[in-house]
């Protein structure tokens, strides 16, 4: 599946920056085949993330798998002593698991970003936050991508 | 504190059982408007609710389902009780008028005894009568699926329903099928509707801004009431997204919570959700969103003779096709419901008088088309009905028509929950065919599909129905198949539920890689080509003269 980086970058900047003061974005680029464990392992250095503190707002069922709205936020005071450094977004059912990495800093204000992501089929989307103390938090939500067409 | 009501009011008015062989005339004498409307009013607010009328201006037969399975946490709970189980649950005598309104049991015979239900002129009589009695305590709300699915609604793009409903002066409505009129038409209508069209869960997908108002405030009986609207969350998935390309839906639970809190802060003592989520979605929602007093449910067409409590929230299910009007009297004090009384009023059209004002309006809309609509196309020799999780004789006729008229091996017909029933011996008129098919994307496609693709479609729809999490359900029934038989294990996961697909004509298992000629209708894809479904069905029935579909045994259900 061909990823359209330009369009996604524009959307992230347009939708995310104004609201959240996003510091920077890079997209997890081609990491080979969908190997979600490898990508997560690389991000966390092998540490197991704790569930919680991260909120992933995605629809239960996608209206259009090609452009699924997603907002990720992390509970954090975002002070110089205690802040979110990065948030990794991965999807386990796309040809490649990497979706995006958001970079934050203490001056970000709140750790929240939104963008639109592409999902090839029904799959789990996982967000993992890296805190400045080296700890990791995560959450996972399933997004259903359906053929549609038979509602009551 | 809420008082527990063991006594189901609907049953009281309609409990009398007519001995077998009694005539319809006698039933009419026994069933009176006064009894049907009798209500010992209480409290300072009366909510009156209708939903899922689906364009039906005149009385209909509508057979409730025999199969309506609940999965996961809702297994065995209402509204997933049908027939005798439902009657037992509410202590309603079999064979009574209430039993006929609420269940499929002995439908053809009882339909002849008790006559049709519904008709917006009868609904009007009921609404006007409640308003006359309760005055400024009354709130009248329309849960949506009002403007579509009849011939006159189709050709006037909903104007017949809008003009007729305006007589009833709803305080608010929400929607689902309304959106199949397209963005432009919906905006054009809602801007001059005269009452709010509410949908807290629709945003424009460019700026994420609300497309409609979320909340309407009314003051009744000294109580400030917030009415929050929730449109069908999966409209752009279940219906064509290309008709509403700029609008994004979804359940949007957190936005709803914020809207409830905003309403409370604005001084609302009563918060009502006017919802088109479907019953199971609303029941789950009630357990997760705090502060909703009443949810007026819709979409899944359930008719329940009593409210269902989910925590502190009261859920009302008012049925479909104009068969019922719900009345909920509430005693609201200090921002809480202290007491309530409920009645699901069955709209027996032989017993309830026609309101002349509404009747005139309906006739005005029907008159130019009446002759065409009444044209007899054929005869129904057996009971024709649609509702049921897997099949119904109505869609068996449609699938037969698709296979015969479009020279297909396999037919697919959508699992819509609307569509009237016809009793054995009844004429099939042109209007009856429209009442089963009238949608704004009616083209009948004919295409090649592999066996694997056909299985994938069945799996996909089955998961919309049997996913144990209601938030992943879309509220329709299973897609109907013609020319094909299969086994479904409802408790398995997507991809594993459907097995044993057999092409009936050849008695052969479906080959995953082989292509089959499939004909179907109601595709959500833009640019679907082919004749309109009503023309295909009309042509088929004309050739046959009479149709006599039998209960189909093509779907074997496992795991119930």
Describe this structure in words.
The complex is a heterodimer of chains A (152) and B (560). Chain A is an alpha+beta fold and 152 residues long. Chain A has a single domain (5-143), classed as Sandwich (Immunoglobulin-like), CATH 2.60.40. Chain A is 16% helix and 36% strand. Chain A contains two helices and nine strands; from the N terminus they run αβαββββββββ. Chain A has helices at 5-20, 36-44, and strands at 24-26, 50-51, 54-57, 68-74, 84-91, 98-103, 111-117, 123-131, 136-143. In chain A, strand 8 and strand 9 (136-143) form a beta hairpin. The longest helix of chain A has 16 residues, at 5-20. Residues 1-32 of chain A have low confidence and may be disordered. With 560 residues, chain B is of the alpha/beta class. Chain B folds into two domains: 9-365, Purple Acid Phosphatase, chain A, domain 2, CATH 3.60.21; 375-558, 5'-Nucleotidase, C-terminal domain (5'-nucleotidase,  domain 2), CATH 3.90.780. Chain B is 30% helix and 21% strand. In chain B, strand 10 (308-310) and strand 11 (313-317) form a beta hairpin. In chain B, helix 16 crosses helix 19 (533-544) and helix 17 packs across helix 19 (533-544). The longest helix of chain B has 16 residues, at 451-466. The relative contact order of chain B is 0.15. The model of chain B is unreliable at 1-7 (pLDDT under 50). Classes of the chains: A alpha+beta (152), B alpha/beta (560). The interface between A and B is medium-sized, with 18 and 44 residues.
